């Protein structure tokens, strides 16, 4: 089996759920937690502004994001 994650408007949630449940080979489970949480960091903040493993890291969030998206996976 494979997993498919979909995001739908609240108004269509029940109809889509019922439709998917009507397909015998489909198993439906609900998860209201988003898989990827958006960052609440401001553009001018740096990881070093926070404690923990980021302490002393002088890169900014833009640089970290830029480098992380250019790597081949």
What does this structure look like?
This protein is mainly α. The chain has two helices and no strands. The protein has helices spanning 13-21, 61-70. The model has no long low-confidence stretch (mean pLDDT 79).
Roughly how much helix do the residues carry, as a percent range? 25-40%
Determine the structural class based on helices, strands and strand pairing.
Answer: mainly alpha
**What's the Cα radius of gyration?**
19 Å
**Mean pLDDT across residues:** 79
Looking at the structure, what is the overall shape? elongated
Strand tally is: 0
Question: How much strand content do the residues show?
Answer: under 5%
Distance, first to last CA: 23 Å
Q: DSSP helix count?
A: 2
Largest sheet: none
Q: How many separate domains? A: 1
Instruction: Report low-confidence residues grouped into runs of 5 or more.
Output: none
Order of helices and strands: HH
Quick rundown:
Helices cover 26% and strands 0% of the residues. The chain contains 2 helices and no strands.
Tags for this entry?
73 residues, mainly alpha
